[in-house]
Every structure is written in C-alpha cells, then in structure tokens.
Task: inverse folding
C-alpha cells in the first residue's frame, strides 16, 4: 500500500530551495519540495511525504493522526522502510530527533 508519511522540516537547503531535510520519527532524509511552490514550508512545518516528495503541508496534529493511522493499519514498518529507502543523503543521526506524538489530540 502506498501511503503518505508525515515528516517535520528540519532545514531548507541553502543551495537548493526545492530540497529540505526532514525528520520522520528519528530518520532524517532529504526530500524534494518542488510540488509545494504555492505553499512553501519552513523549518518546523510538517509535510506529507510520498516517495521522497513533499505532497502537502499539514498540522502537527494531522501528522500525529497520520502516524497513528499507519500504526493501526499495520503499515508503520513499511512506511519507515520507504523513508529509509529514499536513497538520498544520509545525515547525522546524532542530531536531536523530532517525532509526532502518538495519540495526541
């Protein structure tokens, strides 16, 4: 099943404004922001990611609900494998990690 995965923007690339570092439950990867030209995210914003592309901006509450839904559907492991398999830049895993709070309302 192909589902969008929530991630929080950590930083926007200084060399390429269509590229950003996101944190998805502790996994940090570079994603493409090119589809969000009309609603550019900023560091701290949450986005839904599909195959390495930010599809839309969402609220932190929506991000937590999406992660909860992925868990309920038994898709969380597949979602995390997708994030880890983007094949984009590996980043410093020692940096502080951000994640949506499961079950927050």
Result:
């Amino acid at each position: 099943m192909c589902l969008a995965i929530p991630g929080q923007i950590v930083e926007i690339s200084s060399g390429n404004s269509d590229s950003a570092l996101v944190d998805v439950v502790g996994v940090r990867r570079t994603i493409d922001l090119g589809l969000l030209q009309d609603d550019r995210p900023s560091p701290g914003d949450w986005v839904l990611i599909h195959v390495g592309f930010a599809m839309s901006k969402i609220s932190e509450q929506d991000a937590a609900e999406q992660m909860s839904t992925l868990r309920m559907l038994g898709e969380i492991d597949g979602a995390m494998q997708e994030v880890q398999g983007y094949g984009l830049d590996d980043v410093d895993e020692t940096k502080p990690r951000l994640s949506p709070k499961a079950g927050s309302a």
